[in-house]
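Appendix B, example 12.
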Amino acid sequence: MRESVFFEVRLRRFDVWQLSVGVVAALAIAAVAAWAVAMFDTQQESGRALVVGLAALLALSTVAVALSLARIEGGVLACRDGVWSFAPQVGAVRSGALEVAIDLGAFLLLRVGDRRRASAWLPVQRRGLESEWHALRCAAYSPPPVAGVAPTASSLTPE
């Protein structure tokens, strides 16, 4: 018997997420630059090189982290029989429970997976999913289906 698909959507666009990561990274680099300028005047010659080196290291680290966060693979998010899965175009399929980490109305940050294993973080935006957005939000917030449990005699008798 073929398993039924409760919900399925193809995720392709991540513009809002990438812009947000870029803005936060730019603000972090600006803060590091402001710190470096403030510290530069208070240091001796030997300390100035340390301030510049530390600021450059922090800025490069910020860029590296931002690039890794902004790189999101598109794929298919699906729910079959109460189990969510995300199949990226490249890489391993992640499956497990779906959690909504951030809900900003037109943007959702979802987490698919198990706490004990690696999970997939999915920044999902309304733009590009207009026709499926309401269904995605309903599916994300709906409780998992209850397994077919036969009623017992004690549950049928009135108290």
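The radius of gyration is 23 Å. The helical segments are 15-40, 45-70, 133-141, 153-156.
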